[in-house]
Design brief:
There is one protein chain. The protein contains 12 helices and 8 strands. The chain is of the alpha/beta class. The protein has a single domain, classed as TIM Barrel (Alpha-Beta Barrel), CATH 3.20.20.70. It has an 8-stranded parallel β-barrel with strand order 1-2-3-4-5-6-7-8, surrounded by 6 helices. Helix 3 links the parallel strand 3 and strand 4.
Length: 292
């Protein structure tokens, strides 16, 4: 699954002032990140505010992004939730022509056991015609996919090809890397953890920061994968404050503030999300100026 190695970017879904999807801005974002040499794109993830999109809007985003990408890089679509059958229905009903993989988050709110998590992803894997990347982000879901469960899925489900790991638990991530099948990928789900995870044997990142700075994120990952950690650290430390500000008042509120200052999209979100507060916005403005 080399197509999911390197720098992935979880793209935002731009909105107009009336909260409708801003498709021209979405096209600008796609072209911006591809120009920055990202290795693959993830649409309709957390950063894409997928939970606020209607079924029709989701299909419209998939169709538009697929056309905008035009096979220039692999495309992954987020299809996840806490209703296993509804996810399976979505995979069967959505037009996924031109899509290369599915990113599916651990089921949230229900708080399933590890056996429930295993059966959830096994069911998705069985019905999916595309490779599946499982997404572990306990800070959002209130449930952790343990290393044992992740490895069981990796070994038993042929088309579960990767995990996006955002637990922040390096020991857990290292256990997965140590025990995984050779072709199974461990992808950082946190820009701040990209270098440590790659140094332990991870394969890259699905980045938020790359929406704004794709070339720099791509270079950092490329250097780290070549074991040039000295040069990779220099880039990381240059953008460390930016990464902190991405989440200082919520994601994707932070990255949309960055992108609005770069004229990539408007600083609009859908409720219950709102733009960052004035203090964070001012700090982001200063960082953007300093990085020019």
């Amino acid at each position: 699954m080399k197509k999911f190695k390197g720098t992935g970017v979880a793209i935002v879904t731009p909105f107009k002032n009336d909260s409708s999807i801003d498709f021209p801005a979405l096209g600008r974002v796609v072209n911006h990140v591809i120009k920055g040499q990202v290795n693959f794109i993830v649409a309709m993830g957390t950063t894409g505010e997928a939970s606020t999109l209607t079924k029709d809007e989701k299909q419209a985003v998939i169709s538009y992004v697929t056309e905008a990408v035009h096979n220039r890089v692999p495309l992954v679509i987020g299809i996840g939730g806490n209703n296993t059958q509804e996810i399976i229905n979505s995979i069967r009903e959505l037009d996924l022509a031109g899509v290369d993989g599915i990113l599916s988050v651990a089921p949230y709110y229900n708080k399933p056991s590890q056996r429930g998590i295993f059966q959830h992803f096994k069911a998705i894997s069985t019905c999916s015609p595309l490779p599946v990347i499982i997404y572990n982000v306990p800070g959002r879901t209130s449930v952790n996919i343990t290393s044992d469960t992740c490895l069981e899925l990796a070994h038993e489900c042929e088309n579960i090809v990767a995990v996006k790991e955002a637990s922040g638990d390096l020991a857990q991530i290292m256990r997965i890397i140590k025990g995984k099948p050779e072709n199974f990928l461990v992808i950082s789900g946190d820009d701040m953890m990209t270098i440590p995870i790659i140094s332990a044997g991870g394969s890259g990142v699905i980045s938020v920061l790359a929406n704004a700075y794709p070339a720099e994120c791509s270079e950092l990952v490329s250097l780290a994968l070549k074991n040039n950690f000295k040069a990779a650290r220099e880039i990381h430390f240059r953008f460390m404050e930016s990464i902190e500000l991405l989440f200082a008042d919520g994601n994707p509120s932070g990255i949309k503030a960055f992108m609005s200052m770069m004229n990539l999209c408007q600083n609009n979100l859908r409720l219950p999300l709102v733009p960052v507060n004035k203090n964070v916005f001012s700090r982001i403005q200063k960082v953007v100026e300093d990085l020019k």
